[in-house]
Amino acid sequence: MASKRQAMMEENRLKLIEAGRKAFAAHGYAAASMDELTASVGLTRGALYHNFGDKKGLLAAVVHQIDSAMAQKAQQVGALKADPWEALLAEGAAYIEMALDAEVQRIVLLDGPAVLGDPSQWPSQDSCLQSTKRTVERLIAEGRLKKVDPEAIARLLNGAALNAALWVAASDDPVKTLPRVVEAFNAMAAGLRIN
């Protein structure tokens, strides 16, 4: 009986995250109606409060879902490269390029920081950071990167990619801004290499 109840609670949680994702993408965080959102999946505000505490808690869950998927997608792009240096650059560029996606722009890069605060402190960012750190450690061990603290390099590279994505999302012309940003990201990262 308890497992059936837990399964139903998890199903309701996932329904609310999906409904939140749609509402936040369509209307933005401030304009999204919690009554309409919960009604769209046949639930009540009570279910929302039980699962997430409040509207901000729901946004945090939605941001976590999308940002985690962004990190996974960037890592998949990087995995297509045989060379770890090229993989590192490809991951950063892929993350920045996702700023062109309207849902990512609105929820993760505009509303997320405005409501949830510093994105570098979000739990979903840690996975990306750890992956970058492992690649940096490998490149240092191979003598391909300068011997600088790997965590510092990983944090700076991830911070640069994140801030670049924020800039692309907030720019007047994201499509025009993107190539400039990726070029600058690659040039900055190149300064870490041992020639």
TrEMBL record:
Classification via InterPro entries: Homeodomain-like_sf, HTH-type_TetR-like_transc_reg, HTH_TetR, Rv0078-like_C
The keyword Magnesium is assigned to this record: no
DNA-binding region: 33-52
GO molecular function, one term: DNA-binding transcription factor activity
Keywords associated with the record: DNA-binding
Cited Pfam families: TetR_C_41 (PF21351), TetR_N (PF00440)
Keyword DNA-binding part of the UniProt annotation: yes
Superkingdom of the source species: Bacteria
Domain HTH tetR-type: 10-70
Protein name: TetR/AcrR family transcriptional regulator
